[in-house]
TrEMBL record:
This is NitT/TauT family transport system ATP-binding protein. It comes from the Bacteria. The keyword Nucleotide-binding applies. The keyword Transferase does not apply. PANTHER family: ALIPHATIC SULFONATES IMPORT ATP-BINDING PROTEIN SSUB, TAURINE IMPORT ATP-BINDING PROTEIN-RELATED. Pfam families: ABC_tran (PF00005). SMART domains: AAA (SM00382).
Amino acid sequence: MSFVEIADVALRYAPQGGAEGTLAVDGLSLSVEKGEFVAVVGPSGCGKSTLMKLATGLNFPTRGSVSVAGRPVKGPVSIAGMAFQNPVMLPWRLTRDNVLLPLEVVQPHRRQMRARKAEYQAKADALLASVGLEGAGEKYPWQLSGGMQQRASLCRALIHEPELVMLDEPFGALDAFTREELWCVMRDLHAQKNFTTILVTHDLREAVFLADRIFVLSARPGRVIKVRDVDLPRPRPLEVTYEKQFTDIVHELRGLIAEARQ
Ligand SMILES: Nc1ncnc2c1ncn2[C@@H]1O[C@H](COP(=O)(O)OP(=O)(O)OP(=O)(O)O)[C@@H](O)[C@H]1O
């Protein structure tokens, strides 16, 4: 059995005001192996974020099944860490304390928080340093740039050592240079820690740079219309993005999405 299995799933959002609701995904099947880095791309509104919510237990299928780590998903998946386009840091807490938030929620850390606070704080500072944010734990999030906040948000997604990391457009709001820097941060974190990763993105270069496999979804209701292996060797330097093999894959994906939008 794969680490994440989504099997023939449909999800219709509840109707409002007599309408019939929105069928977000239908016949959606995909599986992700342990340690794999996959990306999900597709036309706007095709159900990418819905897929993320299904895999983390924030939404449940109308039909079909979802399992993670061999267990059916019946509620929020505690072995998952998440990062989104908007880092949403609590402005009254230091950056370090924002990073520590999942440990205050997820067991067994929650019950150990008081006794192990100093150790957890040191862990947060070490994680921040590993993404180039040495000393930033002592600052408030509003004292950091957007790129720094997004790095901190990655740390928050990883602090409880999740086996599954879900990234929903995490670099979408950043300028091109900062975005590429964070691709490298993410590449290195994945290589070190080997968590299973699902990245939802509109940025096809980002998908090809980071992923082992890319799932292309149809227009809504979303289902997988193509699985593209990215057979570029790792570790991948940024320069790979200028190579023909890389740009060929990007063009292929662009063509598939253009077709799917029609
Ligand atoms: N909570 C909700 N209630 C009702 N409809 C919803 C809800 N969440 C999403 N939808 C609808 O489901 C469809 C799929 O939404 P989803 O956010 O999964 O798509 P997406 O591919 O992530 O979108 P985008 O490319 O714009 O980020 C859309 O038509 C959206 O309006």
